[in-house]
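Lecture 7 notes: from sequence to structure.

We start with a single chain of 821 residues. Read the sequence below before looking at the structure.
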Amino acid sequence: MSSLSEHITEYSQRAADLQLKIDCNMHGALHAEIAIVGEAPSHREVQTKLPISGGIGDLIWSPLRKLGMNRNNVYTTHAVKRNVAIVGHARSINAGELQKWQQLLTWELAQLPNLKYILILGDYSLQALLGVKGVTNWRGSVLPITTQVMDVNKKGRLAVSNREYTGVVTYNPLMVLRKPSLEPVLHMDLAKLQKVSQGTWIPHEVEPIINPSPKEAIDWCDKMIDEKIPVAFDIEVISNESACIGLANSTTTGMCINWRNLESNRWSSKDEQDVRRSLGRTLTGDNCRLVAQNGSFDSYYLWYKDKLRVSRVWFDTMLAHHLLYPGLPHGLGFLTTQYTRHPYYKDEGKNWREGGNIDQFWNYNVKDCCLTLAASQRMEEELKAQGLDEFFYSHIMRLQTHLVRMTVGGVLMDTSLKDHVASSVRAEVEVLKRKFQKQCQKLLNDDEVEINPNSPIQLSRMLFTDLHLPSKGKSVDKNSRSFIRNHPRTSRDAKVMLETLDKYATENKFLTTYAEMKLDEDDRIRCEYKQTGVQSAPGRLSSSSVLWGSGTNLQNQPHRAYEMFIADRGYRFAYFDLAQAEARVVAWLAGIGSWIEQFERARVDGSFDAHRALAADMFKMEYAQTPSSDENPDGTPSLRYIAKRCRHGLNYRMQAAKLAEVTGQSLSQATENYNIYHRTTPELKQWWQNTIDEVKATRELWSPLGRRLKFLGRMDENALDSVIAFKPQSTIGDLVASFIYKIEDHRRWPINARVCLNIHDALIALVPKNKAKMCLTIMKEVAEQPIMVNNMPLIIPADMKLSEPDDQGIHRWSTLKDVTL
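Now the structure, written as tokens:
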């Protein structure tokens, strides 16, 4: 092919033969060594007839030019050369058409005589060139590409020729435009293209050792101990049982100690016991610095299921990456392509089931270990260089061991009461469902209609299409239902139906989420505490069910579920809750003198109410004349409640409309209170501006306790809300989390006492009855240690409680009573 125009002409003819429409043709140098293959042309590319242009082009060419690449020495094209409609967040094209475009792309690239390297942008390009899906997983991978081209040769015979290239996979730039925090990842992937094209890219190879004999497995465990260097470990699970444990102290070689093959166990019971004892010496002693990816799971699983208590994970790659870059993904697939030269491989952990070759699973286990170790070495350097290593080891990794203990310990449940509650609520749910159906039938004038109250689609159709009720969009969530119910155009019958629907939704959620939550065989409820769980407030813990399917989120239990949680025989529950914790941190950060004075007075004088004092300041009243409760005698929100809600919401840039929603006020009332609040505390807006200036100048924020938020995204209004909330929310999250290990490591804390629940700003411990007051004293001592915020000491007082026995002599979460120490 002598010219680009001839190339385009030939391609166009082939596309016409396949009845394919072309909106944007290829461009660039036919003799280029590098090609960029996009997914499909955007509207802008269709207008300009130039691939990889407009906003997409800016994202790609700006960093590539710095690497010495431009339109003059690169060939650009699309896998699909027509504009494809986007459905939801993804493009939609049928498989048959995509196969035709793939056939054409293979031919097209084969006409470039010097082509060696291909930058693959997006999923269609990935499928066309490598036959796999999921660019979010595969991005960052450098992979060999082999294509076969069938064509008619000069003699009129069908000839098949092979072409080989090296592909570098990254996102479709449209995805990066929608999520700007991914732009640094895109740049990282583009830099790989330069290394590949310069011949400096050396792939990371892993040599697995699998199916060892018992002696080989024991010798390997001894080797891990004797060589005294970090050891990465990883377990794999089949049918809710651990299937193997991988160990590696090298980034290229590791062993998978697998108990079985596809058909049966591999060893005798005695051999397996001997190997497990060796694993115990490796994992449960202080012999090895253990490295893991999401080590919390491996640790609690081995402890609960295999009775192997991992002593302590020294380095968790998921937690390290979350500390370094909280806004990025933290899965091992992502870390592998960020920190190593190994391509994406995580599908191998599932694909072996299709062919039945279980050895692929054991190989995958070794890769997990070796690549986790490789990633940890790079991140260890980053933590030191960025001044985060001390915080990582002394807080994050120290905490993980204690959270594992909380997971394994769980909390005992009153199963008889739980079953009774579930039965009672289940009956109430059925009554409400029947009542809701009758009300719907009346409104729709149809005795046969059945509306599923759990179906958003059916509810939306009934409310907005059939009944023409007022709406703010098509949502039928709780806030939308409240808007409809309070709207003057909503009929009385419709309001009654919505009230029933609200009651049904509340009761059904309580039934399915709480009353029917799945317990383990020992009648205990467990949850996994996640240190990476709250993206908007890194440092706060979240919780979920455990990996074998039981348990639930234990941080958001409703009050009527508390009665089901009981202390073990001989134990009581001890509890503390930090008082107005985030608001106090905001006062110190923003330097709000009146708040600081009021909070300090409330701390010293337990009868003084800081929220009541704020209400007095806002509404120009004497403190003694200000309401002391959140409700007026007629049940309406009091001025104290309004001031409290302002403080909790408006500190973080909540607007008047949202304030109206959470307080039940009219928009005009909420707007007036919004303005009063900010006139009373002008320091808040100045603190916001200072925070925004700081993050714009440095692209990062540091909490008073030493956690960093690295800001990778665009500075829009939504992002700024999370920026403002970071310091107070993360400070309290890390502070409460630190109390767990400070309490349990306290020199006087009983060995048979433990923290069992984290409820955001509160902790609950299980303590021996005869040492309950001492334990509560230790908890208070730890909780009320001062921290430095804005160069000022801050002590947050803690409300203390102990459980009292009920009529049956049982200590329950619901029987916690205030205790003054």
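Residues 97 and 714 are 36 Å apart (CA to CA). Keep this in mind for problem set 3.
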